[in-house]
Amino acid sequence: MNNNLEKKFYIVYFSSISNNTHRFILKVGCRSTRLPINFNEDPPIIEEPFILLTPTYAGGHGQTTGAVPKQVKKFLNIETNRNNCKAVIASGNTNFYDTYCIAGDIISKKLNIPYLYNFELLGTKQDVEKVIEIGNKFWEDNNF
Fold it and tell me: Exposed/middle/buried for 47, CB within 10 Å: 0-12, 13-18, 19+?
């Protein structure tokens, strides 16, 4: 993997105390901002375009309540953040069948933005490479 490839894109992400998403972002090595784990903390206001990366919390079998972490919802309830969110990437767990990575679908539809990619748990080497490739192409194609 050529992780020395220039990463032009910017990711805002949420990672719980499991740190799966955080470890994935460290492997990607792009510029990033982590949303607070503690719901009572104020989320940052991001005044530039970004790609949102979020885990999915859903129980499968059609249960989508709570699929988008409440910290991500709070962050996106800020108009500036919503307007600067240009695409979404989701992680999930295939054990949850039909709700695997559904947070990406939900956010994509709600904000009318592209759903670029999904991966399981903390991702593979190939997932890291793919996110770098897709992130750079998306950034270039949209002149961010």
Answer: exposed
